[in-house]
Amino acid sequence: MIFKAVGEGRPYPDHGYVRVGQWADIAPRQVRLDELVTTKRTLDLDALLADDSTFFGDLFAHVVQWRGVLYLEDGLHRAVRSALHQRAVLHARVLVLPD
Protein backbone atom coordinates (compact mmCIF):
# COMPACT_ATOMS: atom_id res chain seq x y z
CA MET A 1 0.00 0.00 0.00
CA ILE A 2 1.45 3.36 -1.01
CA PHE A 3 -0.84 5.58 1.07
CA LYS A 4 -2.50 5.18 4.46
CA ALA A 5 -5.87 5.54 2.70
CA VAL A 6 -7.47 6.83 -0.47
CA GLY A 7 -10.11 9.42 0.27
CA GLU A 8 -12.52 11.50 -1.74
CA GLY A 9 -12.79 15.18 -0.92
CA ARG A 10 -11.52 17.27 1.94
CA PRO A 11 -12.96 16.21 5.31
CA TYR A 12 -11.29 19.10 7.15
CA PRO A 13 -12.66 22.67 7.41
CA ASP A 14 -11.81 25.28 4.77
CA HIS A 15 -8.43 26.77 5.62
CA GLY A 16 -8.44 29.70 3.19
CA TYR A 17 -5.11 28.85 1.55
CA VAL A 18 -5.89 29.27 -2.15
CA ARG A 19 -2.73 30.84 -3.60
CA VAL A 20 0.72 29.29 -3.91
CA GLY A 21 2.14 32.38 -2.18
CA GLN A 22 0.21 31.55 0.99
CA TRP A 23 1.64 28.03 1.07
CA ALA A 24 5.14 29.39 0.43
CA ASP A 25 5.23 30.74 4.01
CA ILE A 26 5.24 27.13 5.29
CA ALA A 27 8.66 25.49 5.28
CA PRO A 28 8.70 22.11 3.51
CA ARG A 29 9.47 18.93 5.40
CA GLN A 30 9.55 15.23 4.69
CA VAL A 31 6.34 13.24 5.03
CA ARG A 32 6.06 9.47 4.74
CA LEU A 33 3.79 8.35 1.91
CA ASP A 34 2.24 5.64 4.08
CA GLU A 35 1.04 8.31 6.54
CA LEU A 36 -0.93 10.24 3.88
CA VAL A 37 -4.64 10.09 3.10
CA THR A 38 -5.38 11.33 -0.40
CA THR A 39 -8.22 13.76 -1.09
CA LYS A 40 -8.54 12.62 -4.72
CA ARG A 41 -9.38 9.17 -6.03
CA THR A 42 -8.10 9.75 -9.57
CA LEU A 43 -4.80 10.88 -11.00
CA ASP A 44 -4.39 12.94 -14.16
CA LEU A 45 -1.77 11.05 -16.17
CA ASP A 46 -0.79 14.26 -17.99
CA ALA A 47 0.28 15.73 -14.65
CA LEU A 48 2.17 12.57 -13.72
CA LEU A 49 4.07 12.33 -16.99
CA ALA A 50 4.70 16.03 -17.66
CA ASP A 51 8.31 17.17 -17.43
CA ASP A 52 7.22 20.64 -16.33
CA SER A 53 4.38 19.71 -13.98
CA THR A 54 5.59 22.18 -11.36
CA PHE A 55 6.38 25.03 -13.77
CA PHE A 56 3.36 27.12 -12.73
CA GLY A 57 2.89 25.70 -9.25
CA ASP A 58 4.70 24.90 -6.06
CA LEU A 59 7.66 22.52 -6.08
CA PHE A 60 6.29 20.86 -2.95
CA ALA A 61 3.09 18.96 -2.28
CA HIS A 62 0.48 20.52 0.01
CA VAL A 63 -0.60 18.52 3.04
CA VAL A 64 -3.16 19.44 5.68
CA GLN A 65 -2.85 17.95 9.16
CA TRP A 66 -6.19 17.81 10.94
CA ARG A 67 -7.14 15.72 13.97
CA GLY A 68 -3.84 13.87 13.74
CA VAL A 69 -4.33 12.79 10.12
CA LEU A 70 -2.21 13.99 7.19
CA TYR A 71 -4.30 14.74 4.09
CA LEU A 72 -2.60 15.13 0.71
CA GLU A 73 -4.47 18.12 -0.70
CA ASP A 74 -2.31 18.90 -3.72
CA GLY A 75 0.53 16.95 -5.29
CA LEU A 76 -0.89 13.48 -5.87
CA HIS A 77 1.19 13.24 -9.05
CA ARG A 78 4.34 14.08 -7.05
CA ALA A 79 3.52 11.43 -4.46
CA VAL A 80 2.89 8.73 -7.07
CA ARG A 81 6.07 9.71 -8.90
CA SER A 82 8.01 9.34 -5.62
CA ALA A 83 6.49 5.90 -5.07
CA LEU A 84 7.40 4.84 -8.61
CA HIS A 85 10.99 5.83 -7.85
CA GLN A 86 10.93 3.57 -4.75
CA ARG A 87 10.95 6.52 -2.33
CA ALA A 88 9.03 6.27 0.93
CA VAL A 89 8.95 10.03 1.62
CA LEU A 90 7.72 13.18 -0.08
CA HIS A 91 8.75 16.77 0.54
CA ALA A 92 5.63 18.74 1.41
CA ARG A 93 4.39 21.90 3.03
CA VAL A 94 2.23 20.84 5.98
CA LEU A 95 -0.50 23.18 7.17
CA VAL A 96 -1.59 22.22 10.70
CA LEU A 97 -5.24 23.02 11.43
CA PRO A 98 -6.57 23.22 14.97
CA ASP A 99 -8.87 20.37 16.04
UniProtKB/TrEMBL annotation:
Q: Which domain of life is it from?
A: Bacteria
Q: InterPro entries annotated for this entry?
A: VapB-like_prob
- This chain belongs to the protein called Arc/MetJ family transcription regulator
